[in-house]
Amino acid sequence: EVDMQKVVFNGHYLMFFDNAMGDYWRALALPYTDAMQQLGGDMFVKKASVEYFGSAHYDDLLTVGLRCRRIGNTSLTMDGAIYRGDTLLVTCELVYVYADPATQRPQPVPAVLRAIFDAYAAGQSMVELQTGSWTDLGALISPLRAAVFVLEQGIDASLEWDAFDATAVHALACNRLGQAVATGRLLPHAPGVARIGRMAVVRPLRGSQLGRSVLQALERVAQVRGDTAVVLHAQCSAEDFYIRNGYVRQGAVFEEAGIRHIEMQKSLG
């Protein structure tokens, strides 16, 4: 929102930083609500200070950055900055208190959460990606697929679970809290051709490259076993994602489990 001078209202910069904090949690591969529920706490803003060096104007392309400066016993301090190109416009300091969600009384930042922030700052991966059988991974994959396909998309549970799970190679990405955040499976389709399906990413983390990582892991499995191509039935809403990852359309749109799909294929070189 801009005023008559075509500059951003001062208070809106805090909203920009708040949105960036949401992206920070996504970068940590932590679905915020589920992560806080597992940890038994919540983050509350204690202090927000903003310093202005210039104004953003209508149609400006801005870069918003955040870094964790300090983790205290019960608090977390974030430094933020907003740039237009190389020009610094705004800085901020955000202080969060980790507290009991019911009473809002401060409590110590859990060691595991502290370690996740440290690992991210050190450039380490926020997820562990593994491939394996349904026997090994199904207990973690099943609730994720139920949440995405049955609860969110309304697919009948009888269509979601099939006999192919037992023979498929499954990929699973877990964050540093051990939560399942992305999955997919690989099946034989025809001689030399594999089929990928049941691709799912937990809702808050979509668009964070997790789906791409799972897709590439399954493609590597297919390559190793000698497949030269992969086919899949993509939901039409996800078609652009697969195009960006090298897949091309095959044929016309069709309906599967009440959702519009398109068959897509990729050659494995």
List keywords for this structure.
38% strand, globular, 7-stranded mixed sheet, 269 residues, 4-stranded antiparallel sheet, 7 helices, alpha+beta
Integer-rounded radius of gyration: 22 Å
- The helix/strand order is HHEEEEHEHHEEEHEHEE
Strand portion, in percent? 35-45%
Instruction: Report the uncertain regions.
Output: none
Q: Overall mean pLDDT score? A: 94
Tell me how many strands there are: 11
Structure notes:
The longest helix has 19 residues, at 134-152. Helix content is 29%, strand content 38%. β3 (75-84) and β4 form a beta hairpin. The mean pLDDT is 94. The protein is α+β, with helices and mostly antiparallel strands. The protein is built from 7 helices and 11 strands. The N and C termini lie far apart (48 Å).
Question: How would you summarize this macromolecular structure in one to three sentences?
Answer:
Helices cover 29% and strands 38% of the residues.
What's the helix and strand layout?
Blueprint: H1 12-27, H2 32-39, E1 42-52, E2 63-71, E3 75-84, E4 87-99, H3 111-121, E5 127-132, H4 134-152, H5 157-160, E6 169-175, E7 180-190, E8 193-201, H6 210-224, E9 229-235, H7 239-244, E10 248-256, E11 259-267
Parallel strand pairs: 8-9
Antiparallel strand pairs: 1-4, 2-3, 3-4, 5-6, 6-7, 7-8, 9-11, 10-11
